[in-house]
Specification:
Layout (H helix, E strand, L loop, with lengths): L9 H16 L6 H21 L3 E3 L2 E3 L4 H35 L9
Antiparallel strand pairs: 1-2
Amino acid sequence: YQLFGLPALLLPAVQFLLAWRLLKFRDVHVRLYKTIAVIILLFSLSGLVALHWQRVTLFGQPLSEAGGATGGLLVDTLSGYLNLGGATLFFAGFFLVALIFSTPLFPVLFL
Protein backbone atom coordinates (compact mmCIF):
# COMPACT_ATOMS: atom_id res chain seq x y z
CA TYR A 1 0.00 0.00 0.00
CA GLN A 2 2.87 2.37 0.51
CA LEU A 3 3.82 2.65 -3.15
CA PHE A 4 0.40 2.82 -4.89
CA GLY A 5 -2.07 3.18 -2.02
CA LEU A 6 -5.63 1.95 -2.48
CA PRO A 7 -5.28 1.25 -6.22
CA ALA A 8 -2.87 -1.55 -5.26
CA LEU A 9 -6.02 -3.53 -4.42
CA LEU A 10 -6.56 -3.85 -8.18
CA LEU A 11 -3.39 -5.90 -8.64
CA PRO A 12 -4.89 -9.18 -7.34
CA ALA A 13 -7.86 -8.70 -9.68
CA VAL A 14 -5.53 -8.25 -12.66
CA GLN A 15 -3.56 -11.32 -11.63
CA PHE A 16 -6.78 -13.32 -11.23
CA LEU A 17 -7.95 -12.35 -14.73
CA LEU A 18 -4.58 -13.28 -16.20
CA ALA A 19 -4.63 -16.65 -14.41
CA TRP A 20 -8.19 -17.30 -15.60
CA ARG A 21 -7.23 -16.60 -19.21
CA LEU A 22 -4.19 -18.85 -18.84
CA LEU A 23 -6.35 -21.71 -17.59
CA LYS A 24 -9.05 -21.20 -20.19
CA PHE A 25 -7.06 -20.53 -23.37
CA ARG A 26 -3.68 -22.12 -22.56
CA ASP A 27 -1.66 -19.80 -24.81
CA VAL A 28 -2.04 -16.21 -23.73
CA HIS A 29 -0.25 -13.59 -25.76
CA VAL A 30 0.67 -10.77 -23.41
CA ARG A 31 0.74 -7.67 -25.52
CA LEU A 32 3.06 -4.82 -24.62
CA TYR A 33 0.44 -2.11 -25.11
CA LYS A 34 -1.93 -3.84 -22.67
CA THR A 35 0.81 -4.13 -20.06
CA ILE A 36 1.67 -0.45 -20.43
CA ALA A 37 -2.03 0.43 -20.26
CA VAL A 38 -2.42 -1.44 -16.96
CA ILE A 39 0.60 0.38 -15.53
CA ILE A 40 -0.80 3.76 -16.68
CA LEU A 41 -4.18 2.77 -15.22
CA LEU A 42 -2.55 2.07 -11.86
CA PHE A 43 -0.61 5.36 -11.87
CA SER A 44 -3.59 7.48 -12.95
CA LEU A 45 -5.92 5.89 -10.42
CA SER A 46 -3.30 6.40 -7.73
CA GLY A 47 -3.10 10.07 -8.70
CA LEU A 48 -6.89 10.48 -8.68
CA VAL A 49 -7.20 8.88 -5.25
CA ALA A 50 -4.36 10.97 -3.83
CA LEU A 51 -5.84 14.12 -5.32
CA HIS A 52 -9.30 13.76 -3.81
CA TRP A 53 -8.88 11.65 -0.66
CA GLN A 54 -6.01 12.45 1.66
CA ARG A 55 -7.06 10.26 4.60
CA VAL A 56 -9.12 7.08 4.35
CA THR A 57 -10.09 4.46 6.92
CA LEU A 58 -9.64 0.94 5.58
CA PHE A 59 -10.54 -2.10 7.71
CA GLY A 60 -10.59 0.13 10.79
CA GLN A 61 -7.08 1.46 10.18
CA PRO A 62 -6.51 5.06 9.05
CA LEU A 63 -4.35 5.47 5.96
CA SER A 64 -2.55 8.80 5.85
CA GLU A 65 -1.95 8.73 2.09
CA ALA A 66 -4.74 6.98 0.19
CA GLY A 67 -2.91 7.32 -3.12
CA GLY A 68 0.41 6.08 -1.82
CA ALA A 69 3.82 7.58 -2.45
CA THR A 70 3.39 7.48 -6.24
CA GLY A 71 0.07 9.31 -6.14
CA GLY A 72 1.41 11.88 -3.70
CA LEU A 73 4.41 12.59 -5.93
CA LEU A 74 2.26 12.90 -9.04
CA VAL A 75 -0.25 15.18 -7.31
CA ASP A 76 2.45 17.43 -5.87
CA THR A 77 4.00 17.81 -9.31
CA LEU A 78 0.83 18.27 -11.37
CA SER A 79 -1.22 20.38 -8.96
CA GLY A 80 1.47 23.05 -9.05
CA TYR A 81 1.24 23.29 -12.83
CA LEU A 82 -2.41 22.48 -13.54
CA ASN A 83 -4.29 23.27 -10.29
CA LEU A 84 -6.93 20.92 -8.87
CA GLY A 85 -9.31 20.88 -11.85
CA GLY A 86 -6.59 20.48 -14.45
CA ALA A 87 -4.89 17.67 -12.55
CA THR A 88 -8.25 15.90 -12.20
CA LEU A 89 -8.90 16.17 -15.93
CA PHE A 90 -5.37 14.97 -16.68
CA PHE A 91 -5.65 11.90 -14.44
CA ALA A 92 -9.22 11.13 -15.56
CA GLY A 93 -8.22 11.32 -19.22
CA PHE A 94 -5.28 8.98 -18.75
CA PHE A 95 -7.46 6.67 -16.65
CA LEU A 96 -10.16 6.40 -19.33
CA VAL A 97 -7.70 5.87 -22.18
CA ALA A 98 -5.79 3.23 -20.20
CA LEU A 99 -9.08 1.54 -19.28
CA ILE A 100 -10.06 1.34 -22.94
CA PHE A 101 -6.69 -0.11 -23.96
CA SER A 102 -6.33 -2.57 -21.07
CA THR A 103 -9.85 -4.04 -21.09
CA PRO A 104 -12.34 -5.03 -23.78
CA LEU A 105 -14.62 -2.19 -22.61
CA PHE A 106 -15.67 0.47 -25.07
CA PRO A 107 -17.09 3.90 -24.19
CA VAL A 108 -20.09 3.24 -26.47
CA LEU A 109 -21.33 0.64 -23.98
CA PHE A 110 -21.85 3.32 -21.32
CA LEU A 111 -23.95 5.69 -23.43
